[in-house]
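**User:** Here is a favour to ask of a fellow structure person. Please take any protein you like and set down a full record of it. No explanation is needed for now; the record alone will do.

**Assistant:**
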Amino acid sequence: MPRSVLTGSNIQCNHCLWKGRFDDAMASDATITGTHPQNHKITLSCGHSVERQYGRIASAAQGQHSLGCETCREERYALDAIGSGWKLVGTTTPSKTGYRRYAHHCGHFQDHAIVNIDHHQIDCAACVLNCRCSGLMHRRLWHLWRTTAAQTLIPLSAHSE
């Protein structure tokens, strides 16, 4: 039997609807600061303001996901890049959503998948071409740096073979 919108829905007054939305925002560790017919402007716990659809706030309140902050995410990507010997320059083409453009300390620009930067599975194409070790020494230096918990990044181009 087909369901009907008229008989199968619970109608709420505006006060109850907004109270539920504000409660969902509070449960998601966010504060509603502005309204829009389709989105809420909310302030996240980090202090950044973003817009989210009503349904996303409600599902975050139920624990299905968290309300992520794009600004904080990009800052984390930049810090991960520095830890890998790269500098985050910006985004790539819209068709490559999981990639960012990075600059290596040698001056070479290269697009990398974010996950590869995060796991330090990257080599500079320019440095590898100019080096006889084919990146193996670079990976060994990275592993040495990581396992000894050095406070400063070992320049990956400082070796000679």
Q: What stands out?
A: The helical segments are 14-27, 54-61, 70-83, 114-118, 125-129, 136-147. The beta strands are 30-35, 39-44, 49-53, 86-91, 99-104, 109-113. The first helix runs from residue 14 to 27.
